[in-house]
User: What shape does this take?
Amino acid sequence: MAQLVLTGQIQGQTTTLCNFTISIDGGSPVPPDTVVLDQSIFTIPDADAQIDINAAALDQTKYGTLTAHLGIDATGTITPTFPAGTSNWPPPTITSSAVGQTVMMTVHFTPLRDATEQARLSLAQTGNDYPGSPPAPTPGDMSFRAPGVALPPTNYSPLPPATDATFIASPPIASGKIQVETRTVTPSGETVVLQIPGVTAPQLVAVHWPADVPRDPGASPAPFLIYFHSGMAQNSPTFYDDPRDRHDQTTNQTYPFGWDYQFFGLLNYLRYIDDPFLTNPFAKGLALQIEGSGRNVVLVLPLMRVANTPCDEVVSFADAVFLQEYLPEIQAFMFRRRGNFQFGPIGRLGMASFSSGHAALTCFLGDTNNQAHPLYLDTLQEIYLFDPHADLVSETLPPLTQVTAWAARGTSGTKNARLYTQNDPAQLAPLLAQLGVTGGVAPFHAQTPDGRKSLTSLPLAAWNSLATQLGSGVPYANTGQVHQVMSALMLTDALRRSEF
Assistant: This one.
């Protein structure tokens, strides 16, 4: 007979917070013959056997039950197989002795679930009555929802390239004008949607891992950028809450798999749909902006949900303790997909917010418990604000006040803070004072002598002039259009100025 020795790991540490059973040749599940500390030991046949393994975490809501299968042929050769799409089990270690073979296996529990395929299929739509509240006076006519892209995507990953598309130039302002360039950019790497069970929000995060961020065995801690998209409640109930939205039939809830949540909260931020300046600035192309910047950083895009307050929209991602646990879990999840089973802290962290997403960022920065946490003080090193609340200085000042307070705490000497705003130059004095920079004639880029804090003024008139020059189909004749294009282009500039 042979021995099967099973152990579990949580957060890179062996654990006893799980129970193992096995079934031999389709029989009833049996417990281990012996448990020694964190090892569950089973006696198994030497040959001609099929063995199913169940690893059940004590915390089922968070970690669930993981499975594996061993096939042992007539010669005693052992072949492991694991459920498709999972990477929780390293290859077994098999040793032989005079008393027979010993098979040692470790399972890595994770609180994350791969929901990429469910997210992709949630984008399916048929006809002009797909999800959302109908606009009056034509009930049932959903043509205003036309996404401009085939849905569902054939594959969620890789994301499609941007061909001959507008990108912000470097520098973004020269001779008193906004500078852009035409480029073809193809996102590299892998994009997945991960589900976080047992939390209110966000229950899903999209993760884009560029190919040049290493994750093979021995890889260094990865840099991360959390991006808070515009808040959901401002567009509810017109979007998001209509019961016709495609959703999870098990829960009968539109969040998180409703069509509007999936399209406007995730896909529309990950990719471009036509040219981001000339045609459609509403699609943000975050993965393409990262690729275009030449900086290597992992994007984490939490899917917020409709709630009564901004902090309730984001909940867990406004908590430093939660992020300290779950960002390394995301890193470990992606590492394991490349056969790397190490677990450890992440590298340099950035946060960015667009529009009312600044309120979600402020929930994190303004929490007094977070302000004493190492993730706030030291790990978080980059913050970018993209046109918080458009042209209202009164709404821009509160998040900027929190950003400047963060920049002065902890390892302050290596922190970068960037604000991109369309605020009228005459109104920028309080913002410039907060950042400690001196302005100029708009459009302008102003920064501190060390370059770590900056304000880039990009007013409507400058965008309108550029649109006229390039024959843009979007005239940038109002602050709402400018509001959208700033987040569709300027992440590239922020990352170029970063230390990622």
User: Anything to note?
Assistant: The chain has a mean pLDDT of 93. The first strand starts at residue 2 and ends at 10. The first helix runs from residue 60 to 63.
